[in-house]
Structure prediction request, 386 residues.
Amino acid sequence: MKYYLREGLLPPGRSTAATQAEYDEAHVARLRLIRALTDVGRLSLAAVHAVLQALDAGPDQLAQAVGTAHELLGPAPRDDEAPPTRALAAVAELGWRVDPSSQALRQLDAALRAAEDVGLPPDEQRLRTYAGAALDVARLDIAGLPRADTAPAADVVAYVVLGTVLYEPVLLALRRLAQQHLYSDVEGPPAGP
Amino acid sequence: MKYYLREGLLPPGRSTAATQAEYDEAHVARLRLIRALTDVGRLSLAAVHAVLQALDAGPDQLAQAVGTAHELLGPAPRDDEAPPTRALAAVAELGWRVDPSSQALRQLDAALRAAEDVGLPPDEQRLRTYAGAALDVARLDIAGLPRADTAPAADVVAYVVLGTVLYEPVLLALRRLAQQHLYSDVEGPPAGP
Prediction:
């Protein structure tokens, strides 16, 4: 906690004596948030800083703050210059409307390129299945989104940032467990995957 | 490439002169694989080493090799000692049969605990939607699995390891893009999420 105070991630408490300070509910909540972002989200302290700034931003910087937060949540592909042609083709095929300059598009492109490089490019059926699963999840994500015109901006940003950081590991862990569950039907007792 | 040779990740080529060596197709394929594991999979060199060993293992070490590879693909939760009670309850609720000592179960537990800590625990509907999406994807993953009794062991391990490393970013990127696509219907032109 002292470390976070020193790094400016937590506001100072109310001094009650020369070496003591009081911390309120808000401090405890923020501490939990920082822990979640670093432990589960694997964010660097610099990224946590930016996310907290986004959370504290006023309503008029909302869209920008959410965009910044999403950018930071990486992973950032190394090769940023090549146009994401594979990803653009994939979303066109799916009929999705997305921001052509978004980080997620570059992430998708890097993953598709890498799969191609090692001789395992996803075929159309795989892409459609993954896209369908992603849509099911995203539909629920969007349905839970606090309305920007009534909810405090911090709530909307918190929902987007935490929804991304916290629920991505849930989805990935469930995929691995689903593989185990299905694999145990094929092969007997669960072994590896 | 020289770096990977020095680190023992690539076997030496056939010397053709004092300062030259020939590299064949297998070298190029392995180099692509290392790149994919480090760039997209974000694996450490130590983890790449272990994955390559798993790929080169004989058929009788297959299950163990796959298990080892999956363990390395992290992210490893920090607090390994607490029993994953939340995750165990979740898979029991879903009726899935999984290995109670698996890394994926601990990952799920850490993510569920973190979501709870910041006041955003997934409700039953969210868990079921995510699990349904994970099952759709896993069913396709399993269907494509080379049969262990006919395919070379390296192919099976390659499929599991690469399927995890390469397709997880595909799934996550598609989820973010699906959010953008759906969000653009709600809010007009795509902005942040």
Observations:
- The mean pLDDT of chain B is 75.
- Strands of chain B lie at 14-17, 20-22.
- Chain B touches chain A through 89 residues (CB under 8 Å).
